[in-house]
Amino acid sequence: MLANHNHLGPREACYFLTLNVVDRIDVFTRPAYKQVIADALNHFAEAGQVCIYAWCLMTHHLHLLVKTPEGNGPAYFERDFKKYTTPEILKAVEVEMDLRKDWMMQRFEDFGKSLKRIEKFHLWQNCSSPLHIDAGQTDLLMGRIEHIHENPVRERIVDLPEAYLFSSARDYAGGKGLVKVKVAQHTGLAKIKTISSN
């Protein structure tokens, strides 16, 4: 059921983020690994730590268009998301008995050593260079959403964006996706209407 018709205020903003796996390793090739990311996005959305407008998970990166709570920039969400998902992905790799397990774990460990961090394994690269998008930048906002959803089409995984399960394209096509998102729609020259997709 669609509800909660709201308008983004003029000072509200979204952020376009791309979280990359270290060395562009194709980690997210199995449904179990992908589901970890979908579950984590729901966890942060339900906790009120982020509002997700669009997302798409590819084999070695995650695209997001999000709004964070006032006073908390995207860096806080990114830090917490990476910290939360890394052990969950490593656990899933153990359970799945992936033939690439030893190779992937070694790569994650080597990357951690190169950064001289406390954590033994490092799944995500550090910098995502978030792009700030003002609520009034309707064309830019909708263009980013389209760009996010077209990823699997460009990679020739699917013919239509909504056919790809691990993105919000289904929500924008009127269906129900795996993650709780707010669907942004054109409602005028400089307005974005958000509809809670439940």
Main features:
Alpha-Beta Plaits, three-stranded antiparallel sheet, 198 residues, disordered C terminus, 22% strand, four-stranded antiparallel sheet, single chain, disordered N terminus, alpha+beta
Low confidence ranges: 1-11, 187-198
What is the structural class? alpha+beta
CATH superfamily descriptor? Transposase IS200-like
Fraction of residues in H or I helices? 25-40%
The gyration radius over C-alpha positions equals 17 Å
* Beta-strand content estimate: 15-25%
Topology as a string of helices (H) and strands (E):
EEHEEHHEHHEE
Mean pLDDT: 84
**How many DSSP helices?**
5
> What gap, in angstroms, lies between the N and C termini?
6 Å
Largest sheet: 4 strands, antiparallel
CATH class: Alpha Beta
Which word captures the global form?
Answer: globular
Biggest sheet strand order reads 3-4-2-5
What is the number of independent domains? Answer: 1
What is the number of E strands? Answer: 7
CATH level-two architecture = 2-Layer Sandwich
SSE layout:
Layout: E1 2-7, E2 13-20, H1 31-46, E3 51-57, E4 61-67, H2 74-96, H3 101-115, E5 131-134, H4 138-154, H5 169-172, E6 182-186, E7 192-197
Antiparallel strand pairs: 1-7, 2-4, 2-5, 3-4, 6-7
Helix pairs in contact: 1-2
